[in-house]
Design goal:
The complex is a heterodimer of chains A (313) and B (255).
Chain A lengths: L5 E3 L2 E3 L3 E3 L22 E2 L16 E4 L2 E4 L8 H12 L6 E5 L4 H11 L5 E7 L10 H5 L1 H14 L4 E4 L7 H10 L4 E4 L3 E3 L16 E4 L4 H12 L6 E4 L5 H10 L3 E4 L2 H4 L3 H16 L18 H4 L2
Parallel strand pairs in A: 3-14, 4-7, 7-8, 8-9, 9-10, 10-13, 13-14
Antiparallel strand pairs in A: 1-2, 5-6, 6-12, 11-12
Helix pairs in contact in A: 2-4, 4-5, 6-7
Chain B lengths: L1 E14 L2 E7 L12 E5 L10 E4 L2 E3 L4 E7 L3 H7 L6 E8 L13 E7 L4 H12 L3 E8 L8 H5 L4 E5 L6 E2 L12 E5 L2 H7 L7 E5 L15 E3 L9 E3 L6 E3 L6
Parallel strand pairs in B: 8-9, 8-12, 9-10, 10-11, 12-13
Antiparallel strand pairs in B: 1-2, 1-7, 2-6, 3-4, 3-7, 5-6, 13-16, 14-15
The chains are: A alpha/beta (313), B mainly beta (255).
């Protein structure tokens, strides 16, 4: 067995690296750069029942070591994703994690029910944490009762395991994690973006047309690491970690914090080859750390019996 | 489209905060088309994080040189401006859909209209059009005299009219007042208000506008730079400035 191979609910991954939802479209653009079946999995762009145009532009603004976005869940809608995007992706031997979004529980249920039947969709990522839409999205991810309700409703209809994408924009991330675990979530993905804003000095107004947006990139990595460190000690379901991952070292840090796989988001915009580059760099880094299999690293930062120095060989 | 680690050959401040940078890479050739752009990484670190879209001002396919002109105004472009010959410039490109040079023929006449930092891609366009026997005329608008550039270079290709908003150089006012109405084509690049004013220019054969927009990935994946499609009643149709554009036929997208 390859030392990068990972098994998670619904997912047999050749390696634990996958592009994060919203940062990779449905893969078409990046397929011009490399063969997508090198990836562990692909988290595709959020899909809603109906097509969405999203927010007015400007939709992105740069920040110190990061960026704000307020795309607003632009997507071609369930029908087109089912009939065009997912079939196109099926030419690649790579599991798809379909990101499901909506403004009502019925929306989530109808998308989840249908999209989970696509042959190459091996898991769902329940997006209850998008900060850029007026209804739904974040509203579901910041109130424990509604997070529970939507997770349970989706679990009831999904043909594949359900991972819930948690928002960092909460007071108690552990509580949210526990609630969705109780509702039947098979795994967690964390973190979605942090709410932020930039203001243009010339106009005196926010740069983003939407006002606020979601902060991503290296700037948010310490927040994600801390949250995964906390949550992974309190739940019994695996975590796919994300937030500012740029290098193989970042991936190891996420594993040490408690992640079992890692998604790469904003870095794809900077370096289209970032995912294959990280995958290629991991074995040498595992050698350096004296680790046979990457999964040995999960949670080592808090597992008392582990100590990287003493375990090297 | 490729990722190129190009070598910086020269960098010159040709007007106030306006830099001309020339880079070399063996893959730079005639596949780089007028109106396309390259996505440039400024610095090696995480700050600034994103790439900068910069238009193609000139290509020397034999020597594999790419000339870009940019304004140093943000963190990224100011970093780029500090780079010296021998430095490595990480760029993705060529990206996007450029001007329809192939459809313009010998004997056609064309207005090339640029605003500010929208002027540079018109130089490469003007070179390619004149090579095809097209008669070109240029109108370039700038804020003020200190930021005017490439006037002589354009003059070698066809007549040039310069306008400045403050009247410190050339004609006072905007580019739109300088156009006669007898051209077959109009090609323009500049800020949105200028493009909106040119959208209805009565060219006999076509008006093509190159849009500026904040971009993320530059390759069509992140949906940061979308615009609406004219006449689309659903409000759902869109074009991506980075990969469907940046050049659009007038009337295709909502400016």
């Amino acid at each position: 067995m390859s030392r990068l191979q990972i098994e998670l609910p619904g997912l047999q991954l050749r390696n634990p690296i996958m592009p994060a939802s919203g940062c990779f479209g449905f893969g078409r653009e990046y397929s011009q750069f490399y063969k997508l079946d090198q990836l562990g999995a692909i988290m595709v762009k959020a899909t809603t029942a109906e097509p969405r145009f999203g927010n007015p532009t400007p939709r992105v603004a740069e920040t110190t070591s990061g960026m704000l976005n307020a795309i607003g869940l632009q997507n071609p809608g369930l029908e087109k994703v089912m009939n065009e995007e997912l079939p196109w992706l099926s030419q690649y031997d790579v599991p798809i994690i379909a990101n499901v979004a909506g403004s009502t529980i019925d929306d989530y249920v109808s998308v989840a029910k249908r999209i989970s039947t696509a042959p190459n969709v091996h898991a769902l990522e329940l997006n209850i944490s998008c900060p850029n839409v007026k209804e739904g999205g974040l509203a579901f991810g910041t109130v424990p009762e509604t997070a529970y309700e939507v997770t349970k409703a989706v679990k009831d209809v999904s043909s594949v395991p359900v991972y819930v994408k948690l928002s960092p924009n909460v007071t108690d991330i552990v509580q949210m994690a526990k609630v969705v675990e109780k509702a039947g979530a098979d795994g967690l993905t964390m973190i979605n973006t942090l709410l932020g804003m930039r203001i243009d000095l010339k106009t005196g107004k926010p740069i983003l047309a939407n006002g606020a947006g979601g902060l991503s990139g290296p700037a948010i990595k310490p927040v994600a690491i801390r949250m995964i460190h906390q949550v992974s000690q309190q739940v019994n379901i695996p975590i796919i970690g994300m937030g500012g991952v740029q290098t193989a070292e970042d991936v190891v840090e996420y594993f040490l914090a408690g992640a079992s796989a890692v998604a790469v988001g904003t870095a794809n915009f900077v370096d289209p080859f970032v995912c294959p580059t990280i995958i290629e760099a991991l074995p040498a880094l595992l050698n350096e750390l004296g680790v046979d299999h990457i999964s040995e690293l999960t949670g080592r930062s808090w597992k008392k019996e582990w100590n990287l120095q003493s375990s090297s060989h | 489209m490729r990722q190129l680690k190009a070598e910086l050959v020269s960098q010159t401040e040709i007007a106030y905060s306006i830099f001309e940078v020339i880079v070399y890479h063996e893959a730079i050739d005639e596949q780089f088309q007028p109106g396309q752009f390259v996505h440039v990484k400024a610095g090696n670190g995480y700050d600034p994080l994103l790439r900068r879209p910069i238009s193609i001002c000139h290509i020397d396919p034999e020597k594999h040189l790419l000339t870009m002109i940019y304004r140093a105004e943000g963190k990224g472009t100011r970093l780029l401006a500090k780079m010296v010959p021998g430095g490595v410039v990480d760029l993705l490109g060529p990206l996007g859909q450029g001007f329809p040079v192939e459809s313009v023929g010998a004997g056609d006449t064309a207005w090339l209209v640029g605003g500010g930092i929208g002027v540079p891609p018109l130089y490469y366009l003007s070179e390619e059009l004149t090579k095809r026997g097209v008669t070109v005329k240029h109108v370039h608008g700038f804020q003020t005299e200190s930021v005017v550039f490439y006037e002589e270079k354009f003059k070698a290709l066809g007549p040039v009219t310069i306008t400045t908003a403050d009247g410190s150089y050339g004609e006072k006012g905007f580019v739109t007042t300088q156009l006669d109405h007898d051209a077959d084509y109009l090609f323009a690049c500049g800020p949105s208000p200028m493009l909106r004013a040119l959208e209805s220019y009565p060219a006999k054969k076509g008006v093509y506008l190159s849009l500026e927009q904040r971009m993320g990935c530059g390759i069509g994946a992140c949906l940061a730079c979308v615009c609406h499609v004219q006449g689309d009643e659903t409000g759902l149709a869109y074009r991506k400035v980075c990969s469907d554009g940046p050049v659009f036929r007038a009337g295709e997208v909502v400016l």
